[in-house]
Amino acid sequence: MTKPLVALLSGAGISTDSGIPDYRGPNGLWRKDPEAEKLVTYDYYMGDPEIRRRSWQMRRSNRTLKAEPNTAHVAVAGLEKSGVPVRVITQNVDGLHQLAGLPARKVLELHGTARQVVCTKCHARGPMEDALARVEAGEADPPCLTCGGILKSATVMFGERLDPVVLGEAVAITKACQIFIAVGTTLQVQPAADLAGVAADHGARLVIVNAEPTPYDDRADEVIREPIGTALPELLRRVSAGSGR
Ligand SMILES: [Zn+2]
Asked: Which residues of the chain register pLDDT less than 50?
């Protein structure tokens, strides 16, 4: 018997045990603070060197790059190591699924990654660490070393479109999977919300692991409200043992 393809959609809730707050959810920090939201809004960022200077300072103090994977990330990587085909679609930009040992090719980052920078002109990429070292050394707004263009975090800012290739792959995986697990996401932000619906429409077993109710709970085959750090490893053990459906 072939093992079922598991698609796991992760949101901010999977990383709170790693000390990363919810920045961009409906109740996220950025949405509650219009000044902070400007720092991650494309037009403000591109149009105002002062906004960029403050953005780099925010990135310097951001704990995301120092965070470690928690038991939930480790459990997802463990499921893949146990031989179950797994693809992760994440709303997070922290890279913690990969740090936990999941191969990068198995992870689709809908909102990009905070671990890299990208040039807004020539699209060259580089490590965030290197750019932050330049800020540390006194460059308030370090330009692209290749073309001199404006550098930004390789995350999708407000006002930017999601990468259509990444999004297309996410939809394809969602349609193909037999089990779709939504973890730590309120399913209120697109495209995450749509993906849960697509999974259900295509006959996948839909499992939702989230502390708060989501708009898709009544379409789910199973809803788990327990803390993710314990509930997800337990759920993935069941999936691995073949009793997940
Ligand atoms: Zn460039």
From this structure: 244-245
